[in-house]
Amino acid sequence: MKIAIFSRKGSLYSSQRLVEAARARGHDADVIDTLRCYMNITTTTPTIHYKGKELDHYDAVIPRIGASITFYGAAVIRQLETMGVFCVNDSIAITRSRDKLRCLQMLSKKGIGLPITGFAHSVDEIQDLIRMVGGPPLIIKLLEGTQGIGVILVETSKAARSVLEAFLGLKVNIMVQEYIQETNGADIRCFVVGGKVVAAMKRQAKAPEEFRSNLHRGGTAEPIEITDEERKMAIQAARIIGLNIAGVDILRSDRGPLIMEVNSSPGLEGIEKTTGIDVAGAVIEYIEKSLSKKS
Questions:
Q1: SS3 state at 25
Q2: In this structure, are strands 60-63 and 2-6 parallel, antiparallel, or unpaired?
Q3: Across the chain, where does the E strand assignment appear?
Q4: Average pLDDT of the chain?
Q5: Are 137 and 179 in contact (CB under 8 A)?
Q6: pTM of the entire structure?
Q7: How confident is the model over 210-225, as pLDDT tens digits?
Q8: What are phi and psi of 31, to 5 degrees?
Q9: Which residues pair with 139 in a beta bridge?
Q10: Do 152 and 140 meet the contact criterion of CB atoms below 8 Å apart?
Q11: What is the mean predicted confidence (pLDDT) over 174-180?
Q12: H-type helices in 119-156, by residue range?
C-alpha cells in the first residue's frame, strides 16, 4: 500500500512518525508538501501535479493541513477525493473543524456539553454579549486561532469591552466564551482514531497566571484515565464533525465534561511521548482496516 502524508514539512515529528509507522507495517510512505501541489480540474481525468510532474497514485492520504493553509489544503484534499483516493479526513470535515463557531454549533445541535459561547458582529451588543456568557472573567477567541494563539482571558467588563471593540473594529471574527474557573488551567486531550479513543492525556498550564494548557505554550502533560462519559463524548464529537482522526479537548467542569475544541490535525508528539502509546501505528492500522473493507 502507498500512503501519502500531506504536510508542509517532512521533518515534523508527526510526519516522521507516520512515515515510520507505515514503513514498519510494510507500506510505502511519502511526505508531500501541500502547497507544492497544483491541480488540473477537468471532467474526465482530474489530476494533481507536484514539483513539475503528475503526482504518483496513492492508496490513502493522511491530511496534516495547518490552519494557515486551510483553504488551499482543503482544495487539494477535495481534488484527491474526486480522484477516488481514500482520505483519512475529508475536506468538508477539515473545514468544519477549522471554523470554531460552526464546529460548536454542530455539537450544540446534537446536545453535546459546551462552555456558554457568544458571537456578535456589532459593538452595540457587547454588554449583553458579556452578560450572556456569565460576565467576567471570560475568554475571547479568534475563530481560526491554533495552539493557544488568539485566546485571551479578560477579568473585568471594562477590559472585555475594550478588547471586543478592538477586534470588532478590525473586522476580526471572534467569539466570547465563559471561563471554566474550576479547571485551574487544565484540560484533557483525547486522540480519536476510527471511532475509538486510542490515547488521552491531561494538559496543565505552566503557571498559575497562565490559563492556556497547550504544550506549545509551555504546558505540561501526564497520562490520564478518562471516564466512560468523556470517552463517549470525544467519540461522538469527532463523529458529528465527520472526522476519523481527531484531537478532542475536554474540560472537566462542575456541571460535567464540556467540549472545548475538535482538532482535525492533532499533533502526535505530545500524546505519544506522554502516554507511550503508538498513536501513529493506530492511524496506519485504521487505514488498513478501512481499505480492506472497501476491497
A1: coil
A2: parallel
A3: 2-6, 28-32, 37-40, 47-50, 53-54, 60-63, 86-87, 117-118, 138-142, 151-154, 174-178, 186-193, 196-204, 220-223, 245-253, 256-263
A4: 89
A5: yes
A6: 0.88
A7: 555 555 555 788 999 9
A8: -100, 125
A9: 153, 177
A10: yes
A11: 87
A12: 126-132
| Mean pLDDT lowest among 18-27, 161-170, 194-203, 263-272 | 161-170
Number of residues in the chain: 295
- Residue 244: exposed, middle, or buried by beta-carbon count in 10 A (0-12, 13-18, 19+)? buried
Question: β-pairing, 117-118 with 174-178?
Answer: antiparallel
**Cα–Cα distance measured from residue 36 to residue 188, given in angstroms and rounded to the nearest whole number:** 35
Residues of the chain with CATH 3.30.470.20: 182-286
66 or 206, greater pLDDT: 66
Helix ranges restricted to H, 25-140: 70-82, 91-98, 100-109, 126-132
Q: How confident is the model at residue 289 (pLDDT cuts 50, 70, 90)?
A: very high
Q: Are 247 and 191 in contact (CB under 8 A)?
A: yes
Q: Which CATH architecture group holds 182-286?
A: 2-Layer Sandwich (3.30)
Q: What are phi and psi of 103, to 5 degrees?
A: -60, -50
Domain 2-96 CATH class label: alpha beta
Residue carrying the nine cell digits 521533518: 11
Architecture (CATH level 2) of domain 117-179 = 2-Layer Sandwich (3.30)
Q: Rounded to whole angstroms, how far apart are CA atoms 263 and 282?
A: 17
Per-residue pLDDT, 233: 97
Nearest to 238 by CA among 64, 73, 110, 60: 110
State yes or no: pLDDT of 228 exceeds 60. Answer: yes
> Residue 212: what pLDDT?
56
Q: How many CB atoms lie within 10 A of CB 33?
A: 13
Report yes or no: 94 and 239 within 8 Å, Cβ to Cβ: no
Q: Where in the chain is the domain with CATH 3.30.1490.20?
A: 117-179
pLDDT at 78: 95
